[in-house]
Amino acid sequence: MSDRLDVAIRAIRGVFTLDVAWTAGDGVSVLFGPSGSGKTLTLQCLAGLMRPEAGRIAVDGRVLFDAARGIHVPPQLRRVGYVFQGYALFPHLSVRANVAFGLRDHARADRDRRTSEAIERLGLRGLEDRHPRELSGGQRQRVALARALAIEPALVLLDEPLSALDLPLRRALRDELQTILADWRVPTVLVTHDFAEAYQLGDRVLVYEEGRVRQSALRGDLLRRPASESVARILGFRNVLRGVIREVTADHVRLEWRGQILEARNSGDTFLGVSAGAPVSFFVRPEDPRLLRKDGPPPNPAHHANILKGRVVREADLGVTRSLLLRLDESGPPAQGDYDLEIEVPQFVYEVLNLDEDQHWEFSIHRGSIHFLPS
Hints:
By secondary structure, the protein is an alpha+beta fold. It folds into 3 domains: 5-234, P-loop containing nucleotide triphosphate hydrolases (Rossmann fold, 3-Layer(aba) Sandwich), CATH 3.40.50; 240-283; 290-366, CATH 2.40.50. It contains 9 helices and 21 strands. Strands 7-8-9-3-10-11 form a 6-stranded mixed β-sheet, with helices on both faces. A 5-stranded antiparallel β-sheet has the order 2-1-4-5-6, with helices on one face. Strand 1 (5-13) and strand 2 form a beta hairpin. Helix 3 (108-121) packs antiparallel against helix 4 and helix 4 packs parallel to helix 5. The longest helix has 18 residues, at 167-184.
């Protein structure tokens, strides 16, 4: 399938302005970001439920909206399947009637064929005469998907499809939803503010903030190369830090952070034209720093670069790991609340090192664990 979705819209609702432009191809495009960033408003514009003030929307060359040309295709003519948050099933209708609802204007034979096919492919056979109140959460989700897919849509829109479910069921249905979307192969736009959901289900992720797209990237690229400090924070990165460049060579970058000099690898052209004294943002994943055993040999600089000292000021038991919030020795005001750096260690490491009894530690941050963010 070669369907392409082109979106360039400006919509104003009260004091909020949505102004986005992006393109997506086959697969699942995820709109990710905090509540109130314009994700659901985008879906409503795509579905024709809201009319933007300006812009253009087209699916595989078919124009659904064009403000300049006065085109606004009504929702019922767009061939867009919409799965609402909470599913919005009709409680008085059976599963069969819910699935067939969008096919009311079709000939009886065609309506029955499409309804039966959707029920069969979504694993709802045997439930046709039940009502939503008689279904589990997973079954209700599949009915909502079957209703959206029965119209053989050119585009499917999913608005927080898992948000109403408890965590264990949410994880199970995320796997199921991934399989269903891959099986139907319909271009899909999914809204979520759960990054695990966005990463598993999305082929491309668009990061929304305050009515704008801050970054659009393949999911793997997004994690490796967030476009800015703002995007890193929206994605939930911990240890998003700021320092000052002290030296740049072809191989390494030295920066000052919290009164310490750190050395990092220089890769790519991030620091072309950057001189000493320039501010820099970077992140360190909590699982990357290494605590140094006090009863072991002296640290080898070849394996333990950037050796720092600090004390644990707070910790949290995360089950199989422990989160340790460290305050550097003699570092001035803390970088993040009452701490400078978060380190996550496996539970067995926590127990072996007796971290519940000793709060003061040396730790190392490898050169390759320092990831720079664009200015």
